[in-house]
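COMPLEX REQUEST
Ligand: nicotinamide-adenine-dinucleotide
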Amino acid sequence: MKERGNTRRSFIKTSGAIAAAASLPLYSGIPLYASPSNSNVLKVGLIGCGGRGTGAANQALKADKNVVLTAMADIFEDRITESHQNLLKNHPDKVKVDKANRYVGFDGFDKILNSDVDVVILATPPNFRPDHIEKAVNAGKHIFTEKPMAVDAPGVRRVLESVEKAKKKNLSIVSGFCWRYHSPKRETFGKILDGAVGDVHTIYNTYNTGALWWRDVQPGWNSMMKRMRNWIYHNWISGDHIIEQAIHSIDMMSWAFGDVKPVSITATGGRQSRIEEQYGNVYDHFAVVYEYENGAKGFHFCRQQKNCSNSYAVEVMGSEGHAMIDCIRNRHTITGKEQWRFRGEDNDMYQQEHDELFASIRSGKAMNDGEWMMRSTLLGIAGRMAAYSGQTITYDQALNSQEKLGPDYVDQNTVFEDPAIARPGITPFL
Ligand SMILES: NC(=O)c1ccc[n+]([C@@H]2O[C@H](COP(=O)([O-])OP(=O)(O)OC[C@H]3O[C@@H](n4cnc5c(N)ncnc54)[C@H](O)[C@@H]3O)[C@@H](O)[C@H]2O)c1
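STATUS: Structure written out below.
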């Protein structure tokens, strides 16, 4: 273990240095609009005007003096109206979206791409992301994309192709894996990657939370629109909660392991407390083991069950110490050969994402979160596939999986029955 660990440490130290350099706040202290070359207006289009999309648009408008919002798209008019009112209140001079630029429907995204926006914010449910990312890159737009970026392996492969294309076109892709933009975590993970706890051999990480929201079904909603309103409960739209929500913890685990790929994935899961039909086909708990080439293991637990204890943390155990990253209490500590606690300045990670995105566009040096964001997304998907099927799968099997959860095309009249609730040992790994 030690010998192999040392080899791995050398790799991680190198990749840690790269990660630390890449994670330094860009242009900190320099007003983004100070350079004369920054005088042109950057136009933003928002796709998916829900909670996160509205938040992200708000942050984009604060990231740079010369940014305006010129188009919005959603499949529901009420969501655009609410989001537009909210943004207009906060940025009366920067929201330039009239009725003609508010696109309702599944094709609203294509209409935004045909407009002259420079940047798109992708904040729909994740099943649409591979298509949206691919089309945005083809149209030459810079991208802020919420996590996760796919719900199945064909989607992951499609995004990976777009990531390469974006690099060639010098287009920025910044991901909504927000903890990677959080100063306390950047410092803590930077220290771990620099060897503060020795060779990392075990990571235990959690996203154990309560029940989520539910939108009461209204008269006139057809079967597709019922699903779209309550998308988190349909695995082909959300990916299931291990991808849609718990992926943040899996992403931090992957970060601490230096974003290297695991060898195999074994998992269990099911639905025990959220069993009513209205909750579609998703599970309410998962437990996953990720095994790495050097013998290290990552253990992930997540659940969405009410009246249970909560935990949202990453615990990193190494040959010479231990690191605790507690997302609920916002505490970051290291014990062992080094005794350390983050006492620096906190930041708004959501704002940081956009500050760096717009700074990269202004500088002409594109940022691209593509590879690590897709590794983390695939780790979540692999955990789900291993739990659903009950099989141990390799990372490469997961990447090459042919399972496609949803239909190729979706609009409001598409009729599509959810895949049956998975039964380990019976549901195949495809
Ligand atoms: N990084 C974070 O901390 C964080 C936090 C919350 C949500 N998210 C992610 O952001 C995404 C959106 O989540 P949310 O909480 O805002 O959900 P939400 O339901 O509030 O918003 C999603 C919006 O997208 C719209 N939509 C659905 N399909 C569409 C389509 N094809 N074209 C245009 N609009 C469409 C919906 O009508 C809805 O208004 C998810 O991927 C979620 O995982 C990330």
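REMARKS: The chain is about 35% helix and 20% strand. The longest strand covers residues 200-209.
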